[in-house]
């Protein structure tokens, strides 16, 4: 004889030689014989045992349980007292009926996108991450959605949820902002056989994602190649001197000629230009010598111009003094004043006109 105490919200199963014979709910009981007793808490799920099919043959136990069979292409969401508890995958799941209010929502996952009736707040709760794939596209991006190797559609900025089923889902993120591409160290030979290294820069923006990334492969590499070939063709038809004189116009001409070709790739080329032209050492030295010679010539020209102006000024002054005796005397007095500033002592001898004597002294 055994005394059995079944707690509140519990159920006891009594087995005789492995076979379920009795189901007891809350209360006290006397059990005769060598019986196996197993108690279950109704707050927990009923365990899916190997003998669960045999146990469910007991009508009393069966009436106390909710048996949820989930197919391979289904997910069942379980809510405990209207609060999300867990998500059920394929298989058999069993819940007690009476103690707690369990509700179940069944969804088919053959479709790709998660049903919008499932609140987004549940996406990261419990084990939902096992059943949902989340894709987030930022504000400055767009994404190509590829399902089972086939392009499906373009995803705008936002959050997307897809069932984690057998479908292969790929996303290719594309930055739709205006971008810059550097083409550095382009070695190009001019028409007069001068080898240069050119650093080129271009600004572009993706306009047609479908054309650029579905219809074309490595679209950035194609843009690079188009610009590179056109740059080589343009510079190759110019002499070094022509290049130096027209390098500002070269960028505008090149932009106009390649714009249509690049637009056919779904790319809008907005600007391009030569950043640097790097000369070989010998050419650079010759250019420096030419520059020095030009600056010296300019300096000599300025010096001669100033000397000519000074001589012309003296000639004009001499003509004025020749025509005006009073102006000549004022000029003489000016020079006497300047000389007197540097003379410490002047000695005069004899009588006569002092001014005449000074003139004779300084006129010597």
UniProtKB/TrEMBL annotation:
Coiled coil: none
Subcellular location field: Membrane
Pfam families: Band_7
Leader peptide range in chain numbering: none
CDD domains: SPFH_eoslipins_u2
Membrane topology: Single-pass membrane protein
Family note: Belongs to the band 7/mec-2 family.
Name listed for the protein in its UniProt record: SPFH domain / Band 7 family protein
Organism whose genome encodes this protein: Myroides phaeus
């Amino acid at each position: 004889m055994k005394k059995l105490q079944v707690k509140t919200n519990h159920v006891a199963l009594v087995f005789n030689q492995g076979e379920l014979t009795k189901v007891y709910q809350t209360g006290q009981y006397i059990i005769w014989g060598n019986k196996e007793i197993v108690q279950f808490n109704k707050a927990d799920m009923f365990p899916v045992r190997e003998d669960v099919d045999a146990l469910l043959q007991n009508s009393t136990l069966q009436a106390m349980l909710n048996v949820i069979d989930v197919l391979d292409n289904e997910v069942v969401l379980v809510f405990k007292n209207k609060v999300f508890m867990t998500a059920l995958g394929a298989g058999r799941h069993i819940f007690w009926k009476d103690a707690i209010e369990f509700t179940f929502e069944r969804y088919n996952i053959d479709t790709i996108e998660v049903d919008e009736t499932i609140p987004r707040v549940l996406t990261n709760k419990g084990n939902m991450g096992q059943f949902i794939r989340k894709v987030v596209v930022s504000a400055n991006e767009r994404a190509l959605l590829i399902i089972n190797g086939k392009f499906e559609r373009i995803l705008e900025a936002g959050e997307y949820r897809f069932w984690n089923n057998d479908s292969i889902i790929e996303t290719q993120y594309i930055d739709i902002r205006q971008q810059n591409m550097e083409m550095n160290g382009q070695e190009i030979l001019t028409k007069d056989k001068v080898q240069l290294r050119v650093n080129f820069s271009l600004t572009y923006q993706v306009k047609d994602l479908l054309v650029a990334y579905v219809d074309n492969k490595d679209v950035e590499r194609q843009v690079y190649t188009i610009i590179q070939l056109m740059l080589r063709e343009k510079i190759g038809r110019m002499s070094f001197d022509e290049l130096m004189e027209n390098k500002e116009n070269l960028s505008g001409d090149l932009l106009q000629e390649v714009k249509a070709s690049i637009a056919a790739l779904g790319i809008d080329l907005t600007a391009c230009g030569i950043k640097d032209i790097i000369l070989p050492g010998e050419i650079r030295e010759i250019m420096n010598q030419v520059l020095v010679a030009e600056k010296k010539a300019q300096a000599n020209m300025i010096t001669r111009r100033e000397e000519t102006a000074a001589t012309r000024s003296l000639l004009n002054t001499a003509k004025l003094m020749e025509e005006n005796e009073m102006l000549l005397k004022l000029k003489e007095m000016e020079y006497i004043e300047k000389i007197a500033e540097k003379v410490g002592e002047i000695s005069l001898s004899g009588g006569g006109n002092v001014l005449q004597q000074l003139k004779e002294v300084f006129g010597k």
